[in-house]
Amino acid sequence: MSLSSSMHDSAGLTLFPGALDQLKKDRYMIMGADVGHPGPGTAERPSVTSLPPRQEIIVDLREKVAIAVSAFGEKNRGGPVAIVFFRDGVSEGEYSQVAENEIPAIQAGIDDAHHIRFFPKFPYDADEKGNCPAGLVVDTGIQSPFCTDFYLLSHSGVLGTSRPSHYIILKDEISTGISMVFSR
Domain extents for the chain? Predict the structure, then answer.
């Protein structure tokens, strides 16, 4: 995908100069969604994007996001550092309903695409099977743009490369910050 560094509105004004150049500096994933409904009088035909007729919520968004994030990771040799998701076709009366349904679906789709593995940088950092040692915590460099999270390699791999668990902090009532929890 190529990004143009200048975009113009209908009055010919330049919008957000330099913003697209900033997005080119790292692995930002830009997604957008709109729903195309059939014309009047065709109530039995479904809307485009696997929707029942006249429904604005994208019901299979989780699966679509997981597929897109996985494809992005394969093509770019790493997942996105952030995702920008544009949504069109939503009336003001539908904002909260779309947000309540689609934001969690996007987050779940990102989690479904989790194929993260960690490898030791140097042989002396590896365990006897060549994996990172059990107890490894990674809380920088690959965080979710939506929430506080971390990865924990809780045990040694029996066979092959160990898969870390992905933890999301839903609520932090003591505000310790994630680095304080893991400091030695």
Answer: 19-112, 123-182
